[in-house]
Amino acid sequence: MGHGSFADVAVHAVPSPLTEDDLKITATLAPGATLTEEELFRWCIDQLPYFALPRYIEFREELPRSPVDRVLKRELRDEGVTANTWDVEASDITYEKR
Fold this sequence. Notes:
Elements: E1 6-14, E2 22-29, H1 37-47, E3 56-59, H2 73-79, E4 86-87
Parallel strand pairs: 2-3
Antiparallel strand pairs: 1-2, 3-4
């Protein structure tokens, strides 16, 4: 939420085909926000240690919620990577592991 462009956000694991789980940000944007997945990732590079950088980012209209209004991260994890998910490994972004 520290970025300021989110209405709601969940950071969660998704199964990796090769190693341990990968990290994914699933978020809804605040009204009027025009943030792209690449812009968010570049912001994360400056804010987070490399081991906390998400591999995947997905913006949605809403996040799944329980009857008591908690984000259902288990559903997001089970969905994993969708057709709308941005993958840093498929981009041309490079960053230094520090």
